[in-house]
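HOLO CASE FILE
Compound: tryptophan
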Amino acid sequence: MKPRVLSGMRPTGALHLGHYHGALKNWVRLQHDYDCYYFVADWHAMTTHYEDHADLERNVYDMVVDWLAAGIEPDRATLFIQSRMPEHAELFTLLAMGTPLSWLQRLPTYRDQMVQATDRHLATFGFLGYPLLQAADILIYKAAFVPVGEDQAPHVEVTREVARRFNHLHAGGQTVLPEPRALFTEVGRMPGLDGARMSKSAGNAIAMRDEPAVVEEKVRRMPTDPQRVRRSDPGDPERCPVWKLHQVYSDAAVKDWAVKGCTSAGIGCLDCKQPVIDAILKEQKPWRERAEAYLGNPKQVHWIVEVGTERARRVARETMKEVRSAMGLVY
Ligand code: TRP
Ligand code: SF4
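Model generated. Tokens follow.
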């Protein structure tokens, strides 16, 4: 039996290259060596965006299509939707009984957002509790590994503490809920069109399924070294967001060509951008082909999620039997 991996993603709509390089690429790799469970964290999306669900359904399925487009294989990985699994909520409720408030209040994601998110009211029970919900998501599958970004490391740490406490309080030190380990994606931050981290809200993203003409247009409009005003001015790649994309997409020879051409004014910025455009289009090609097949057959996507949800439910139910019994809830 392969060790189990579990991860979730919030349904924020069509995914971009940052999602792919930061998480999805790793998910695709892991499905060959682990028993992978990947889910749409739609309740998590509601912990911050509880008032608006107008786009939720579309966002959920757009994201699943992007997973499949990236190469997640439904025969290898179990794909499901969190809100279809009330068992997560049950475990969350039971874990909540013994979890000290301070464990949640001290988390950086909580403290930072409370200060930063001035546009929304986050002094809610749901927002404070969301890392505990995440712990339930993980523990209910007894996952050994949780691939996440660095920002989520404290949540995996809390999950470990919650599991330890549960085993201590309710199982006499036996391992009913094993402690998971975080698996960090080794890649750095994916740069966006302006050189800052790629994100939908910053408006600097290229979507996985952007049309080729859109990709081309976006890259051609990218700002470059601000001090390279004329074609005849030599530039410095270190001041240029295009150079950051070369570091993701170009091999040594192309990078060498770009640096030499830039610093000697031997190439223009549009010349320099072309290999980046070509590399992104090449990367997108198989995604686009797979996505087209799924978009032409939405029933198949629903079916994949349906099968995954039932598979996940069998595991979740088994764990809940053990948890109820450990907590004396079998009357
Ligand atoms: N909290 C994660 C995020 O915002 C998503 C998530 C929810 C998750 N439950 C999870 C990730 C369980 C890993 C495991 O990105
Ligand atoms: Fe940037 Fe390339 Fe133009 Fe240099 S030549 S400023 S690296 S786009």
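CASE NOTES: The first strand starts at residue 4 and ends at 9. The mean pLDDT is 95.
CLOSED: yes
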